[in-house]
Amino acid sequence: MTEPEDLAARVAAGEARAVARLISWVEDGAPGLQDALEALPSPSAAYVIGLTGSPGVGKSTVTSALVGAYRARGKRVGVLAIDPSSPFTGGALLGDRIRMQEHATDTGVFIRSMASRGHLGGMAAATPQAARVLEAAGCDVVLIETVGVGQSEVDVAATADATVVLLAPGMGDGVQAAKAGILEVADIVCVNKADREGAEATARDVRQMLRLGSPVDGWEPLVVTSTAARGEVADLMSALDERRAWLDQGDRGRQRRRARAAAEILALAGGRARIQLAESLSSDVIDAVADGRLSSFAAADGLLTQR
Q1: 96 has pLDDT over 80
Q2: What residue segments make up the domains of the chain, in order of their start?
Q3: Fold of domain 42-249
Q4: For residue 102, pLDDT beyond 70
Q5: How high is the pLDDT of residue 88?
Q6: FRET pair for 18, CA 20 to 30 Å: which of 100, 185, 238, 287?
Q7: What's the CA gap between 188 and 20, in Å, rounded?
């Protein structure tokens, strides 16, 4: 048995060290990665949940509360906490993992911090493959917590079965800040820190705003509140259950998995193509564009047609 095959077998057996190592391979694009991923068993239909929102809304606290709620149901849970990259080492700052220490000794929970490594969209480029590893390791639920995002960083929607957008009262006009991008991809909007003044008003504003739009796939986004610091996420869990039941009707779940697969394929192909194109870009062409003798459009066309 080759090393990639052995690693894949250990991942399938749920060995935490093997899961951690294979995710590291995914992040680093290590030799043998493709063989290891192909040797993994067909993953179970894990429920992949993305949690996103601006910094300070309590993403880590909500994630931790959801882990506890799903563990109370006996579910195996995997967490991918995407942290900003250190500008010095390129690694993750591990803030989210520190906040979830209460689950660190639970063998039914796997928590991994991943560095965004400069990738836009609130996620690391390796996130979809890392989620597949957790599915193959037997996780029933995979929670993906993004970097604190702005209006247009909504990549998590292409990876998750349910996208939860978190807001909090008292943070200025949070609805205005989010509506141009994040709210448009929300399956569930959760106003966290509901014990603060203005929570119900924020939830009401979001409901009114969502009524102005039309659901893309037939799903009507839900708006709930939570106080995750107290473990009060029952309404959010109910909304996630409702979303899961909706996906289980007909072929909706399969269509969602197909959409996730398409996004993953295109992301991988785009990354590889960018590397290959960069290797083909000559100094002469760069100098010509820099000196104004050639337009960047013409240079780009030439780069594409020469391959």
Answers
A1: no
A2: 1-40, 42-249, 262-305
A3: Rossmann fold (3.40.50)
A4: yes
A5: 41
A6: 100
A7: 30
